[in-house]
Amino acid sequence: MVFEDAARKALAFRDERDWAQFHNPKDLAISISLEAAELLETFQWSGTDLEVAKKREAMVEELADVAIYCIFLASELGVDLADAVSAKIDANAVKYPVDKARGNSKKYTEL
């Protein structure tokens, strides 16, 4: 499934239940943050196991929740999410030129 199909499916799911009425930008942003925290929770107490492979299914579910709320917020704000992601990558390419950033984890202000 391509992302656009998944986004349409998420919006149809929301609309069939008449939930858009509850989806204001503030509450959607809060929901994104809460779901991201639940994703982060899958890594809690993992010690040196940075991949936490045993929790992969939970990670996939929480990542999907984050993406769904991002789709809902983009819809509410009238943002084309694919265009926004592309524009952000273009902006980051200017901040992080390959010749300076390749293999380097420093912030662009430190390159």
Automatic annotation (TrEMBL):
Domain of life: Bacteria
GO biological process: nucleoside triphosphate catabolic process
Annotated InterPro entries: dCTP_Pyrophosphatase (IPR052555), DCTPP (IPR025984)
Molecular function in Gene Ontology: nucleoside triphosphate diphosphatase activity
Pfam families with a match to the protein in the record: MazG-like
Name of this protein: Nucleotide pyrophosphohydrolase
Organism listed in the record: Collinsella tanakaei YIT 12063
